[in-house]
Amino acid sequence: MELFADRAEAGALLAERLPDARDPVVLALPRGGVAVAVPVARRFGAPLDVLVTRKIGYPPQPELGVGAIAEGGEPVFDLALLHRLGLTPESVAGVVEEERRELARRVRAYRGERALPPLEGREVIVVDDGLATGGTARAALRAVAAAKPARVTLAVPVGARGTVEALRQEADEVVALLTPVDFRAVGQWYEHFEQLSDEDVLDLLGAA
């Protein structure tokens, strides 16, 4: 299975595969999703904005996500994982509050005081650079759904097969170019997968 050269190439290929949409709004999950979303927004001549999400980590091992939160939405937990770890949503309330603060900081950094574009009755395309567990994408899709859009499409270059299938319950359509069986991490499917900074995100949004 071939690799994507970088996020820009992946976004261009993804844009070609997306079905036609009428006057959509494109929302990217920062940071990496923004670079993928630029060619998608360009294809539709659509406004591009960010939908900020944060992972809710297991306190002793923050890289292990037990849930996620998106701006405008409520925390979405992996209840089975919480149970296996002997936790409840209430027991990670402190982590949720920390992530709410960081989420608010990033919203201010990326958008200032400007609100998200209105989503009610619109077609919305949510873009990320890949799906591993899908926790942040699920939180994002539920936050978008609460705004009562006409239709929601989740678009990613690559995703774990089981995650892609599970998220079909959260969106009207999921478009994934690659769903490899041997998926281990998003970055393994890109030749160049540099970490993006807040400044990179602002530059991409400005260019779009």
Automatic annotation (TrEMBL):
Report if keyword Transmembrane helix is assigned.
no
A GO molecular function annotation here is:
glycosyltransferase activity
CDD domains for the chain: PRTases_typeI (cd06223)
Q: Which residues form a coiled coil?
A: none
Q: Which UniProt keywords apply?
A: Glycosyltransferase, Transferase
The source's superkingdom equals Bacteria
The Phosphoribosyltransferase domain, residue ranges: 14-174
Protein name, entry field: Phosphoribosyltransferase
Query: Mind giving the lineage of the organism this protein is from?
Result: Bacteria, Bacillati, Actinomycetota, Actinomycetes, Streptosporangiales
